[in-house]
Amino acid sequence: MLKGAEIYTNPFLSAFMRFKAIGVLAIFVFLVVLVSIFSPGYTFTTARNVKNLLAFGPELAIIVLGAGMLMIVGEFDLSVGSVLAFCSYVFSSLFAAGVHPFPAFLITMVTGGVLGLVNGVITVKAKILSFMATLGTMMLWRGLTLLFTGGVQFSCDTSGYPVFAALFTGEIGGFFPAQSVWYILIALFLVFLLHKHRFGNWVFATGDNTLAARSMCINTDWVKIGCFMLVGGLVALASVIQVVRVSAFSSRVGTGWELRVIAAAVVGGTSLRGGRGTMIGIFLGACIIVIIENALTIMRLAYEWTFMVYGLVIMFAALLDLFIENRKTKLG
User: Fold this and answer.
1) Could you tell me which of 238, 258, 261, 268 has the C-alpha nearest to residue 31?
2) How far apart are CA 278 and CA 12, in angstroms?
3) Separation of alpha carbons 328 and 17, rounded Å
4) 3-state secondary structure of 328
5) Rounded average pLDDT over 231-251
6) What does pLDDT average to over the chain?
7) Residue 198 dihedral angles phi and psi, to the nearest 5°
8) What is the rounded CA–CA span in Å between residue 87 and residue 241?
């Protein structure tokens, strides 16, 4: 066992502490191997299950990409599940009214951006903690969805528009679902935006020290609002993907997703205090949560286990974050 100064001179541990994405990747690989070995009849590694992961997982994972970036800027969005339901209603109701799915999709994307804008303005202009602001809008958007729909589910079959359906839920090469392609493309774009574009520098600076960022003439309010709008737009995209996949709308969709999204971002190495995180880590964190959910399903464990796992994952990731930050401070 390594102790004291040995920890700081060990190359592997030093690299692990400096580059948290490496640690997330190690957790991801370990989890895949573990689930593959212990899943009944090696169900996890079957082509059918892998295909299901690639089809269902991106609906949550796409949202995690935006929410993780928002956490880096130092804010939270607890309303993602309710925004998902509201955007699903907007798309489904427009389609049911005879609107072509492509215009309905664009209107839904605008709706998601506007809802994100509302969250951002309330947070930065009214000086309300994002936790409280989005807790309020979480109940507001969910309440409006239930009010408009009466809590019922209705059909939304887009199969009559094969091009549109294929764009969101089709298959590439007869195996890879379009959802996974959306996820990868969005992740690549956000890797560029966060790590190669000056907007990413503004995000890190704002999340690390807002006052210092303002002294550098960074409009921190609009940086935060932009991140809120990004989350809203990605939630809207996920809502359309989900509606097209299941060919139906449900007013209960998205319930509890805020917990899953935060858990994924934290597992991906995003600091709860803002200013630290990587898009690669967030990408892998979302994959880890999707795999955990899939593992619980194929092992036929009770649904209640999901909440227990989320709680343990968040606590472990938070403690790991604290440990790594303390070690990095000592490493200089």
Assistant:
1) 268
2) 20
3) 6
4) helix
5) 95
6) 87
7) -65, -25
8) 11
pLDDT at 133 over 90: yes
Q: Which two tokens stand for residue 63?
A: 């949202």
In CATH, the number for domain 46-331 is 1.10.3470
Cβ–Cβ under 8 Å, residues 62 and 238: yes
Which of 75, 58, 69, 74 lies closest to 280, judged by CA? 69
Least confident piece of the model among 6-20, 81-95, 96-110, 200-214: 6-20
Count Cβ atoms below 10 Å from residue 90 Cβ, excluding itself: 24
Place of tokens 């209603």: 89
Q: Which pTM does this prediction carry?
A: 0.89
User: What type of residue sits at position 26?
Assistant: A
Letter for the amino acid at 83?
Answer: V
- CB-CB neighbours of 68 under 10 Å: 29
Structure-token pair, residue 80: 């993602």
Which two three-digit tokens encode residue 4?
């004291």
What is the distance between the alpha carbons of residues 15 and 18, in angstroms, rounded to a whole number? 5
